[in-house]
Structures
1.
Amino acid sequence: MDKKQKTFVAIGVIVAVAIIGLWGVDFSKQSIMVSELTSNPGNYTGEKISTTGVIKNGTLIVTPDLISFVLVDKKDSTIEIDVEYTGDLPATLDEGKEISMSGTMVSANKIEATQIVVGCSSKYTE
């Protein structure tokens, strides 16, 4: 096998690995602001959604079966939606933290989360 053939084979392997690695990833889902979810609930109720926000202080309740809290919009803290999550407790989940989450909007004011990712806080302070 000459150098040109080896290059084509290597490129083919890289493309195949990329396709297999991205198989099933849904790129159509964009993160929807809490304000959009609450202002147009009819568009999202019953749908799988992704959103980001901040856990409202004083609302985080952790029990063995359920984690619940109020998620507020990052830009307007007066806009909020209830969240229930039955998965494993993320290690750094806490009030006042920014999170990204996905799940199903089950009503105009409630999301059942299936995945929560807590944003990293900065290691450095001024």
Note: The chain has a mean pLDDT of 86.
2.
Amino acid sequence: MKTLMKFTPTSKSKRILGIDPGVATTGFGVIDYAKGDTMWVDHGIITTKAHLPLADRLKQINDELTALCRTYQPYTAGVEKIFFAKNTKTAIDVAHARGVILLTLKQLGIYTHEFTPIQIKMTLTGYGQADKHQIQMMSKATLRLAEFPHPDDAADALAIAICTAQHLHAFESKI
């Protein structure tokens, strides 16, 4: 992933991790933020195999998230909240993944804020019913990326990281 303009991290920039939880696929996005400016650092997904027992899949999420946090040393993290699910089993599985993610971040001493999809959409576009394409366009523009981030779970995680950065002032008053 290439950015269009250079951002130079300073001692005052803060690394932010965004996470889009899921058992099969957990998206992550890492950005640097300083004085209202953001820079893409990395994004990707943690994937688990469907044939594994749930406990093994959750442990894999824990292990890979721990490794990501040790690599990138985030100042803070944002995690998407569960808002509605037509499929109860999927919602329960996502809740398991969210629990592991929140616990992992807490154990690593990373202060975490949670956002609903509507809060993320409002922050990025000013419209709580924005579609996925609008969110991707704003993420691409905000991070000055040459192309849209992929896959979707990672793109969503970058949006969560941007949302976290935009709320950082209020966020820091709670730390």
Note: The two ends are 32 Å apart (CA to CA).
3.
Amino acid sequence: MKSIKVTILGKQYPLKVEESEEENMLRICSYVDERFRTYREQLVKQPEATVMSLAALSIAEELFEARNNSSEMEKNEQHTMDRVNKSLEKLLEQIKEG
């Protein structure tokens, strides 16, 4: 494990990550910081906890949409593969009969 420090909304947080995950974690933290800062700019009069909560909900919404889209793509791919397999089975039957 490797110890790193990340900064989100101007506050440093220590994290322990696998060395192979360090770069990915830094990108994730940078993304979260950017989203929090965007919300901070839009909600100047709101408490920090409200800003962070709303930004976290927005990020979670993105995650759920991405998961849903991925699930839909997998269903479409499976449907396509089923059609291809049926077509191949018919072709093999025709070859056997021919």
Note: The chain has two helices and two strands.
4.
Amino acid sequence: MCSTQSSDKAGGAKVSIIIPVHNAEKYIEGTVESVLAQSYRDFELLLIEDNSSDGTLKKLKCIESKDERIRVIVNHGSHGAAHARNLGIGAAAGRYIAYLDADDMWMKDKLSEQVRFMTDNEAVFSFTAYEFGNSEAKGTGKIVHVPARLDYRHALPRTVIFTSTVMFDMTRITKDEIMMPSVKSEDTASWWKILKSGVMGYGLDKNLTIYRTGTNSLSSDKLEAVRRIWFLYRSVEKLSLPESIWYFIGWAWRATLRRL
């Protein structure tokens, strides 16, 4: 049911939250509620509708009426999550940009703790720990911890940065620099591009996000992940074959441990 509530604007630097939404009718309300429940109140929520074939757009229009901080942007044609996020980046007005996927959930202090962390560390780019959740977004107790700092070379063998935990300080990086490339695993390719430019990634090792696991078979997901990471090493980063093998071994080892 869609009811209207007034926004509670507090002081502080505005956060622009970008959520690409494609056929997420089943999950998007819960995801948005986790944003509206944030203890940090100074934000705008940009919902990028990416040519859904279910009732997503109708639901988004209902959600948009709940709060003046919510804005729906319709992406005509299905161009994928990278293009949708890039539309959100272009429209964002906040000092900070944060990403959230349409089926994930945030803890209520996620924004307040991460903004404070960014300020304390003078960080351009930060990410947090997260927890695997089931299909109902209930935590399973499997938490992925993150390093205090991460540079390009140490990022290559570990895909530890989860999109729904990322935040940028837009006073210290340009929108062009964070635009995502149109490749598979565009999020990982984007983090590597940013880190390769000399930006340091800062990890807040506190679980502030629930990653809702999908329904695809685990073996299929693993095979696709292998293909994508190898493509990134060889075709995007253009690493040599020995370098690619070295980093791939490290990635496979850490990916296995993360799932245990």
Note: The radius of gyration is 18 Å.
